[in-house]
Design brief:
The chain is an all-alpha fold. It is about 80% helix and about 0% strand. The chain binds protoporphyrin IX containing FE (HEM). This is CopD family protein.
Amino acid sequence: MLSISGAELVLWLHVLAACVWIGGQVVVAILIPVLRGHGQLASLAGQRYQAVAWPAFGVLLVTGIINVGNAGLQWSHLLDSPAGRTLVVKLGLVALSGLAAGVHACLQAPGVRADSARRPWTSALLGSASLVTAVLAALYGVAIASA
Ligand code: HEM
């Protein structure tokens, strides 16, 4: 039987957290249109997702930083290798994913919500942007891991 190293455990946590961040967004995107029109259900579902999504995003950041060292990359020389340059692009995508989700969450906060409900396209756009950028970040992560 193969033994499991610390680096593999961290990568495993990283992939699990990516599943929660991306998979949760997919599930919420599918459910919200059905839940709208049922009182507070859509809003409650969004809040429940956020309770697990942000801890998962935190795990992605922490394990991602550890992955960088485990993948043999150096922060001071990121632009010197194809894998390092791929990581730079990936980090931009991660930042966009977190930013879009954060603004989206702020627009759904009590008080702001009633106003933003009049602009459902803003929420759809921000949610889609967060999901697409996270999916691309995962693709670049796979590329780095395979390099
Ligand atoms: C939305 C956030 C993120 C997602 C969805 C994501 C997703 C992934 C996925 C799916 C992999 C591939 C794992 C494999 O194929 O074994 C990966 C690898 C990797 N990720 Fe992320 N990641 C995110 C954030 C980050 C951050 C913030 C960093 C750095 C600070 C990072 C650094 C890395 C590195 C260096 C690898 C390659 C690991 C290796 O070669 O062993 N990731 N990521």
